[in-house]
Design a protein that fits this description.
The chain is of the alpha+beta class. Helices cover 33% and strands 26% of the residues. It is built from 12 helices and 19 strands. Strands 1, 2, 3, 6, 7, 8, 9, 17 and 18 form a 9-stranded mixed β-sheet that branches. The chain is globular and about 60 Å long. InterPro entries: FAD-bd, FAD/NAD-bd_sf, Geranylgeranyl_reductase. Residues 25-357 form the FAD-binding domain.
Length: 417
């Protein structure tokens, strides 16, 4: 992508030898993926002068479960982007199957605002699409621009320092939004404390496969192993195999045998189908499945996406949660950004509502990431005949259950239900 400058005057300032010198901004967003790009887009659509900085150059892939649950696709639809996601060629996912040991349940979540389908687009496609939506809204985007620090004056964030291949500089804004991932430079610089944390529970490896067709989301679990699979672009299937965190070093040393062994243990029929297909590209994985909430906002700053909240990827909730946080931040700020006192009150509401919005999903994720399928197999067997329970199960798995609906408060038009 190429940078898009708004050319509009602002209250901030920029100095240095890089792009955008002399421009001013209401908001600087650090990170242009699933949290930062939608936040920038929504704030630019609200009329604010927005600068996005990202150290990467797009398109660029990243490690991801890919899955966007129905609450996330409903937001894409509201933003006018769902048709573009579908046009990338990733198929709609309208049903799911969860197998715990020998017991399986099949169904689909309740539609969200009329949206039935989930999607799982490759990230180099999705992230580029989201960044373009932000620039189309009027935001300026600088790729290959690494933020090195946050400028803090009198206890308030007022801008960022950045570096590119050709120079360095500083830009100022009324609000700095950190959307720069789990190892957030912004969070470290503003000393956003961790308010809730649990130790890592799993490690995971992902592989893309051809000749292993699936049309739905599938989860297969036995004690100590969990497998997820879903269809993505180019007729490929993503197969993810989860192991206890304590096994990460052993699994990494024994790839790909450990990956195939985990697949065979949790999903023997899927394992046989994989052997008849072809894995495309390397296995990629992580043993850094951190679980935490950082403080979501403070004087002149806010965090969205993995910068402020990260959890095990086993519920594939990261993209959807990032979308929801971006929508919540934009809704809470509304027209209050220019006034310092009202802006700070809006940020405090955002922080409170973010924690309430994500708390139940966080607890669900920790429960699943303990990989104790044998403990729930009997319970599922006793309830799988009940249509109401099955529907509630799939709603909760997608984050659409009634106790997972955010508490919107005021200015809730952009807050997903």
């Amino acid at each position: 992508m190429t940078a898009s400058a708004t050319g509009r005057p602002g209250s901030g300032s920029s100095s240095g030898s890089g792009a955008g010198a002399g421009a001013g901004y209401d908001v600087i967003v650090v990170g242009a993926r699933c949290g930062g790009a939608p936040a920038a887009m929504l704030l630019a659509r609200a009329g604010y002068r927005v600068l996005i900085l990202d150290r990467a150059r797009f398109p660029r892939d990243t490690l991801s479960t890919l899955y966007i649950h129905q609450p996330g696709t409903a937001l894409l639809d509201r933003w006018g982007l769902l048709d573009q996601v579908a046009a990338t060629g990733c198929p709609p996912i309208t049903s799911a199957m969860h197998r715990m040991g020998q017991v399986a349940v099949e169904g689909a979540p309740t539609p969200v605002h009329g949206i039935h389908a989930a999607y799982a687009p490759r990230r180099y496609l999705l992230d580029t699409l989201l960044a373009k939506a932000a620039t189309d809204a009027g935001a300026e985007f600088r790729e290959g621009c690494r933020v090195t620090d946050v400028v803090v004056e009198d206890g308030r964030a007022v801008g960022v320092r950045w570096r590119t291949a050709s120079g360095s500089g500083t830009d100022r804004a009324a609000l700095v939004v950190g959307a720069d991932g789990m190892r957030s430079v912004v969070a470290d610089a503003v000393r956003a404390g961790t308010v809730r944390e649990h130790p890592p529970l799993t490690c995971v490896y992902y592989g893309y496969w051809e000749g292993v067709p699936v049309t739905r989301f599938e989860a297969h679990a036995v004690r100590g192993r969990w497998v997820g699979c879903l269809p993505t672009n180019d007729g490929r299937t993503l197969l993810a195999v989860y192991f206890p965190q304590a096994e990460f070093e052993a699994v990494r040393r024994d790839l790909p045998d450990a990956y195939l062994g985990g697949l065979a243990a949790a999903a023997p029929e899927l394992y046989e189908r994989a052997l008849a297909g072809t894995r495309v590209g390397p296995l990629r994985g992580t043993g850094t499945q951190r679980n935490f909430f950082r403080r979501a906002a403070g004087p002149g700053w806010a965090l969205v996406g993995d910068a402020g909240h990260h959890k095990d990827s086993i519920t594939a909730d990261g993209i959807t949660a990032a979308f929801q946080q971006a929508a919540l931040l934009a809704a809470r700020l509304g027209a209050d950004l220019p006034d310092p006192a009202r802006r700070q009150a809006a940020l405090e509401r955002y922080a409170l509502d973010r924690d309430r919005m994500l708390a139940a999903r966080y607890s669900d994720t920790l429960a699943l990431a303990r990989l104790r399928a044998d403990r729930v197999e009997a319970r599922i067997a006793g309830l799988a005949h009940d249509p109401a329970w099955v529907q509630a199960f799939f709603d909760r798995a997608a984050g659409t259950g009634p106790d997972l609906v955010p508490v919107p408060g005021n200015r809730s038009e952009e807050v997903p239900a």
